[in-house]
Fold:
Amino acid sequence: MAETRPPRPELVCPAGTPAALKSAVDAGADCVYVGFRDETNARNFPGLNFSRKELGEGVAFAHERGAKVLVAINTFPRAGEPALWRQAVDDAAKAKADAVILADIGLIEYAHRTHPELRLHLSVQAAASNPDAIRFYAERFGVRRVVLPRVLTVQEIAALNPKIAPVETEVFVFGGLCVMAEGRCALSSYVTGQSPNMNGVCSPAGDVRYTETPQGITSELSGFTINKFAHNEPAGYPTLCKGRFLANDKASYLFEEPTSLNTLSMLPDLIKAGVTAFKIEGRQRGRAYVAAVVQAFRQGVDAVMAGRPLPDIDLDRITEGGKQTTGAYEKAWR
Amino acid sequence: MRQGQTRTGAKPVTPPFSPVLLLGMALQPVRPALLQPLFDAMLRVIRRRHPDILERMADYSDKAVCIDPVDLPFVILLEPNPDAPALTVRRAVDPAEVAATIHGPLEMLIALAEGKVDGDALFFSRRLVIEGDTEVVVALRNAIDGAGIDLIEDISAELGPLARPFRSAAGAAIGLMGRMRDDFETLRNALIAPAVKDVHSQDSRITQLETELKQLRKAARRGGAA
Structure:
């Protein structure tokens, strides 16, 4: 029997501003994901995100060019105060967004009940990584796609896909990495009182200080030294998970090193594994990053689908710490 | 580095050997006040063409930011108050006056404003240094990146019938700058070539010594002669 060709996966690209949305669409994004300018999304950064008017204009711009817009409403509402999050769902539906990306089970129930026509995607923040959990969201609330936590190998993803069909899977292919406890990480909250889960911000910029010294640069979070980089040593984000700790007179990374996920070389395997959508992390990054990464992955996906060899594209210059990893997809540390 | 520009006194970014550095030297005797009309005009263009920048900065209206093009003998003081924004060129700024300072070479700062380079990537590679209130810098970066600034297009749009000659002149200037940059790079490489050769030779020697040291340590652990 002839081997069936896997469908062409969607490229889901980040946009923190309307200009970045345009860059993403122009660079070949199939979908762009965005957030509102408040704590309903996990990139609630100063000066970032979309007003309601900007979302409407962004959706129109994308739709005219055949691209979709997904709205991330992926933080967890404060107990007893769901109004802001529900309003975000209502406004996304009103703006004709193609889907909302949700994490909180109560908000998912609200969206399913109030906007039955609205396509629901399960955020990585919900951390659903096994067939039972995913099937529950699909059967109970009609969730159509799950963004998989960055804990699974390609083989595990390939085994999962047939078990949850017709639910689609979306996986991260490039960008910043979190410790493998998405939606449950309390490191930022422990140090700053604010977390990506509740406030939409990890290690808020207001708590970060950089100090230049003759030895290099020191990054601090709420007064705690997170890292010291020597001159010419590539720097990373000032998050506690990427802190360099001193033990037995040796400085080393405890949770993870400053490094970016890059799976360009693994695209054929991920496509073969039946993944529906490839997600690029980085709504907080500039439009130069968006354009460069989207173009690279557009070329990569198109090459694989056309049976051509993968292009050799160097993305080192935009990676955190100047380093790249294939992360859990290969689990090379095992 | 001019006094009073940094919070620590440490030199944050070494200016690259470029045509801008030469321009900066030539501009040393020029009084900042002579350049102020240029920055006033620039602010008018920004307010007209990109009002969203100040809107995104609304929460930081009282936070002044010092932009320090490290290859020029001036700094730029940005006050983002939406009702009375100001872009002032100064010889130096007292750190106490500003919430934060951004240091970087001029060409890189322009590329950043135009969204041609990624701010995080510049920070990771240490070509951009920020000091002070990180939040206001992140807000400013996002506001400017989101505005979709294109300096030549923005200025052209304000020039009416002069737009076309301006575009031609700007294109020619960019071309000339590119050629000069290449020439400077060649010159720089020629100047530092002997030093680079010495460093490479020292590198090889250090690697060799490290290998020997490792072997000696291994031998010592095994109780052999070391």
Helices of chain B lie at 19-26, 32-49, 51-56, 106-113, 119-124, 134-147, 151-158, 163-221. The first strand of chain B starts at residue 65 and ends at 69. The interface with chain A takes residues 6-8, 10, 12, 56-57, 59-60, 112, 115-121, 123-126, 129-131, 133-143, 145-148 of chain B (CB under 8 Å).
